[in-house]
């Protein structure tokens, strides 16, 4: 009776208790003789894809250690097997132990599809959620998860998210029901990773940081493209375009600026930079030499026009929008970008070099409106344990050094 009372309280607390007009709650006393005995539960990739796509649902990804990037290829069969091996069944309680994730928050409502295996096929037993009579030992059960329910806020401090699986059997004039309770919780036996390096510590100065790549013309939406500030159209009416600029490379990557800073604090942040090109005499052209794949031109530009008469002027090119995203970022398993507690330097201050706290994996804007000011962003990479971290600064170098543009 204590067990039943405990389970009823758990259901009330989680908001998942099921009532039906043809069931008397007093009859939730259990099917006798081990008639429904769950032997194993697993969550399989093939059963948890976005409908019509070869992508995994965010709910399914939430059962694994955080991955950046999080495409389907990063979730191996071995990890799927490891997750299943950590699912514990104790009487009618099923414990799903998932890796610690301090930034876990799945905003969408959806299903986690569990594959359940019974020890034997029961007789005349129905799965209540689908009103389906069980006819085999293995079948799938959708577990409904609410918006923001699978989250760090609900799992921290030994928190548990509880759902139920109800079976029913007609006994005489009554429906006798039996519940299994599925508990999602952080794995208490896991050793949390302390890895927070964006790239190997031995990376040489001026080496390309491919773990922070920016894809040219990356489509953020159907109407907005990021990383299109490589075009390097020059600053004033009548000036030439960039000298020998190739646009064939897919990605643009920053390079390491120095090798002495350790990233242990904001003032000692490890520095990376994009080249901004070199402006020729008289602002005649901008050249990049061998740095095309490591350069963004984010100087404020004026259109180059097809005519000088104001009435007939048409722009020769589309202005970049100075929007960026490190869509190709790669982090250690469990690690994440953060700007919590990061202040930057003169962010938003006019006529200053501006270093602003920005998460590079989310769209951000940056320009160089003032000659000589190499503006940039600053951020942290935080390890799975939530405490180990390193600071990084990404600078966009300015091709204008001491003079304003003319025209």
Tags for this model:
single chain, six-stranded mixed sheet, 407 residues
Q: Name the helicity range.
A: under 10%
Note the gap between the termini. Answer: 86 Å
Number of domains: 2
Report the major sheet: 6 strands, mixed
How many β-strands, per DSSP?
A: 23
Succession of helices and strands: HEHHEEEEEEHEEEEEEEEEEEEEEEE
| Average pLDDT number | 84
Secondary structure class reads mainly beta
Strand order of the largest sheet: 2-3-9-8-5-6
Radius of gyration: 29 Å
User: How large a portion of the residues is in β-strands, by DSSP E?
Assistant: 25-35%
* Large-scale geometry: elongated
Unreliable segments of 5+ consecutive residues: 1-6, 8-26, 234-240
What count of helical segments does DSSP give?
4
What features would you describe in this structure?
- The chain is mainly beta and 407 residues long.
- It folds into 2 domains: 2-186, no CATH class; 191-407, no CATH class.
- 7% of the residues lie in helices and 26% in strands.
- It is built from 4 helices and 23 strands.
- The protein has helices at 2-14, 58-61, 77-85, 152-155, and strands at 38-42, 88-90, 93-98, 110-118, 125-127, 132-133, 138-145, 161-171, 174-186, 214-215, 218-219, 225-226, 251-252, 255-256, 270-274, 278-279, 286-287, 323-324, 336-338, 355-357, 364-365, 376-382, 389-396.
- The strands form 7 sheets. It has a 6-stranded mixed β-sheet.
- The longest helix is centred in the first third of the chain and has 13 residues, at 2-14.
- It is elongated.
- The termini are far apart.
- 30% of the residues are buried.
- The model is unreliable at 1-6, 8-26 and 234-240 (pLDDT under 50).
């Amino acid at each position: 009776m204590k067990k039943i009372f405990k389970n009823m309280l758990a259901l009330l607390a989680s908001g998942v208790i099921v009532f039906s007009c043809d069931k008397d709650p007093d009859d939730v006393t259990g099917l006798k003789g081990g008639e429904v005995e769950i032997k194993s539960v697993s969550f399989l990739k093939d059963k948890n894809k976005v409908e019509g796509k070869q992508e995994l649902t965010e709910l399914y990804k939430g059962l694994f250690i955080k991955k950046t990037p999080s495409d389907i290829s990063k979730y191996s069969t071995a990890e799927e097997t490891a997750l299943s091996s950590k699912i514990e069944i104790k009487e009618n309680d099923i414990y799903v132990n998932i890796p610690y994730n301090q930034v876990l928050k799945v905003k969408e409502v959806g299903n986690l599809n569990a594959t359940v295996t019974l020890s034997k096929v029961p007789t005349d037993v129905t799965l209540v959620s689908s009103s389906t009579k069980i006819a085999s030992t293995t079948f799938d059960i959708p577990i409904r998860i609410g918006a923001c329910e699978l989250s760090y806020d609900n799992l921290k401090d030994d928190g548990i998210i509880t759902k139920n699986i109800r079976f029913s059997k007609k006994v005489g004039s009554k429906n006798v029901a039996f519940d299994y309770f599925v508990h999602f919780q952080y794995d208490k036996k896991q050793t949390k990773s302390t890895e927070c390096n964006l790239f190997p510590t031995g990376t040489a100065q001026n080496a390309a940081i491919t773990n922070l790549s920016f894809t040219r013309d990356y489509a953020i939406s159907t109407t907005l493209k990021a990383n299109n500030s490589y075009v390097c159209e020059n600053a004033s009416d009548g000036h030439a375009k960039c000298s020998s600029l190739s646009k064939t490379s897919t990605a643009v990557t920053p390079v390491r600026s120095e090798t002495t800073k350790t990233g242990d604090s904001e003032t000692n942040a490890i520095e990376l930079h994009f080249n901004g090109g070199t402006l020729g005499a008289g602002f005649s052209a901008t050249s990049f030499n061998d740095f095309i794949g490591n350069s963004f031109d984010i100087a404020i530009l004026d259109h180059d026009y097809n005519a000088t008469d104001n009435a007939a002027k048409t722009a020769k090119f589309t202005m970049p929008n100075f929007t960026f995203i490190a869509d190709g970022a790669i982090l250690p398993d469990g690690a994440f970008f953060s700007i919590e507690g990061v202040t930057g330097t003169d962010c938003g201050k006019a006529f200053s070099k501006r270093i602003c706290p920005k998460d590079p994996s989310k769209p951000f804007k940056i320009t160089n409106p003032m000659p000589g000011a190499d503006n940039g962003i600053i951020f942290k990479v935080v390890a799975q344990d939530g405490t180990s971290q390193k600071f990084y600064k990404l600078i966009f170098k300015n091709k204008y050094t001491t003079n304003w543009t003319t025209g």
